[in-house]
Design a protein that fits this description.
Rossmann fold; five-stranded parallel β-sheet
Amino acid sequence: MSFWTVYLSGEIHTDWRERIVKGCIDKELDIEFSGPVTDHEASDKVGVSILGAEEKRFWEDRLGAGINGIRTRKLIDEADLVVVRFGPKYKQWNAAFDAGYTAALGTPMIILHDEEHDHPLKEVDAAADAVARTPEQVVEMLAYILNA
């Protein structure tokens, strides 16, 4: 099968992205990966670092969200498939938004989360094409999708 673009959305505090990328490289899958800016500070401060300081945190966040949103929407729009990871430690509202946006586009989506999140993510899981527990399961799904 031909080249695919996969957007890796969601939590930024663990190595799940690296595990998926390495697994796909090891299997020689023809995939180009994209994703959000994973430097939390750079992502949060992008608006004020370019446009200047804001007095209220709300407006600081709004500036950054707007700039990050341009990048995120463009990359999700171009993706053949989106993987959304919900980690155990933080509430990832951005991941939920990315999952909803992906579902609205009709783009295939794999959700990745631990069993403890089954109930709170039931609607997100229902909108997904597949739900995985580990990055390695995602790699196996991608290998099947590309090579079956």
